[in-house]
Specification:
six-stranded mixed beta sheet, Rossmann fold, 12 strands, 3 domains, six-stranded parallel beta sheet, 12 helices, 434 Repressor (Amino-terminal Domain), alpha/beta, 43% helix
Length: 340
């Protein structure tokens, strides 16, 4: 059997110092006297201790690692983006560290601080808040390459990749209006999130263009999970005069709405019409198939990764702000409405 690899405890014992002192000496943080540091380094060399090299390389920014902080990576949209960024990172000779903010600002800030401590070279972030972004401004101030993905943040000047959320929502609601619907429900996420604001704006604009007054009773706010969307949909359609159509702002909410309708005995599109933002695998396996606003998910992550690696390679071009168009894919979940 081979010899067991040396540990930090072994190094500390040979150098006759505490493990904390050995760690400081090997990882170049805190104060350690020159003589003590030399003893620790000599002990590490003698024992063949390797752990310190990785830690030092991380702290000194010598390893090709980039960070990616997305929303809830259980969401198929973010899962696909994470996959595509990792593919481009690998092709570019980088490793990727992925974190999920779970749409919590404090968690996003904590993740970013932890990754910054490792001197990670650059970041791709889907910001939880459109307004509270001091932590992102800190990256800009420190000249750390940053690409915002799916969302932008107020006052943060950097490369970004988004889609036309407002235009996509406008297309969906305009189509419902064209099919005779006037009581159009909206199932949306928290308004602090950029995409939710934009999709709400598209919803409002389409109603205004159709001379339909906004009815707050037709707007339900839900966390972006299937379970919360089920509850929100049931509340929305338990009203005395429920919507004749529903627009949901992402695929998890669409799935939640479908489950809610099934539990309530509501048939699509006979009792209610449905359009969801984001295409998803099950959308074509349901009966009827679901009409969706499709965004080019396969291009978004790759585009963001390419922007980041261009910056890391030293290219000094003006800021690039990519905005992809959306497409309304008409299937079978919308029917004509004759009700006033």
């Amino acid at each position: 059997m081979g010899r067991k690899p040396a540990t930090l405890k072994d190094v500390a014992a040979l150098a006759n110092v505490s493990r904390a002192t050995a760690a400081r000496a090997l990882n170049n943080y805190g104060y350690v006297g020159d003589e003590t540091a030399q003893k620790v380094q000599a002990a590490a060399e003698k024992l063949g201790y390797r752990g310190n090299r990785l830690a030092q390389a991380l702290r000194n920014g010598q390893l090709p690692i980039v960070g990616c902080i997305l929303g809830d990576i259980q969401n198929p949209f973010f899962a696909r983006i994470a996959h595509d960024i990792e593919v481009v990172a690998r092709q570019s000779g980088y490793n990727l560290v992925i974190g999920s903010s779970e749409e919590e600002l404090d968690q996003e800030m904590s993740l970013l601080a932890s990754l910054q401590a490792l001197s990670i070279r650059g970041f791709i972030v889907a910001p939880t808040s459109a307004d509270k972004n001091v932590h992102l401004q800190g990256l800009i101030t420190d000249n750390i390459p940053l690409v915002l993905i799916d969302r932008v943040a107020k006052g943060i000047e950097c490369d970004s990749v988004v889609v036309d959320n407002e235009g996509g929502a406008h297309k969906a609601v305009r189509y419902l209006i064209g099919m005779g619907h006037r009581r159009i429900g909206l199932l949306q996420d928290d308004m602090r999130i950029f995409t939710s604001r934009e999709r709400m704006s598209g919803y409002r604009a389409a109603l205004a263009a159709g001379n339909i007054s906004l009815d707050e009773r037709l707007v339900a706010v839900s966390q972006s999970t299937v379970e919360h969307a089920v509850d929100a949909t049931i509340r929305l359609f338990s009203q005395k005069t429920p919507p004749t159509a529903l627009f949901t702002v992402d695929s998890l909410m669409t799935q939640g709405a479908l489950l809610a309708f099934r539990s309530m005995g509501i048939s699509i599109p006979h009792h209610v019409s449905l359009i969801g933002f984001d295409d998803f695998n099950l959308a074509t396996f349901t009966d009827p198939q679901i009409t969706v606003v499709s965004q080019p998910v396969s291009e978004i992550g790759r585009a963001a990764a390419q922007l980041l690696f261009d910056r890391l390679s030293g290219k000094s071009h003006p800021l690039r702000k990519i905005r992809f168009e959306t497409k309304l894919i008409i299937r079978g979940s919308v029917s004509h409405c004759s009700a006033a």
